[in-house]
Design brief:
Elements: H1 4-7, H2 16-19, H3 23-48, H4 55-65, H5 70-83, H6 93-97, H7 108-121
């Protein structure tokens, strides 16, 4: 039994095929959503792009780290390496975390330069 109010409604003015949601309509809505997302990403891409500092800034940062004590320098170099997407070699990890003796040679500088070059070209 349908309530009286439903029975008093006028029938739809469009044919029933136009009123129902079918696979073609769903596919069209999905395609329009993809186009809208693509347009939005094209507009937002300049704002979302991370800019890498130039090579001169990297060399200045590395030069500023050289006068630091070995443990502090290694920690700062590891942070700089991580910033460019590199990882600390397994041989130096104990020196970072366990307080093991730190070699006084700049072992991470070449790795930082390589990671920075790779980040600029990516």
């Amino acid at each position: 039994m349908t309530p009286q109010i439903v029975q008093d409604l006028h029938p739809p003015r469009l044919p029933l095929d136009y009123v129902q949601l079918g696979p073609a309509e769903v596919l069209a809505a999905f395609g329009l959503g993809l186009l809208a997302a693509l347009a939005l990403m094209a507009l937002l891409r300049p704002a979302l792009h991370r800019r890498r500092p130039p090579a001169e800034a990297l060399e200045a940062a590395l030069a500023a780290l050289r006068p630091l004590p070995p443990q502090d320098r290694l920690l700062a170099q590891a942070a700089l390496l991580a910033r460019y997407g590199g990882t600390v070699p397994p041989g130096l990890r104990p020196a970072l975390y366990a307080g093991a003796p730190v070699p006084d040679t700049p072992q991470l500088e070449p790795l930082i330069r390589v990671a920075a070059r790779g980040a600029r070209h990516a």
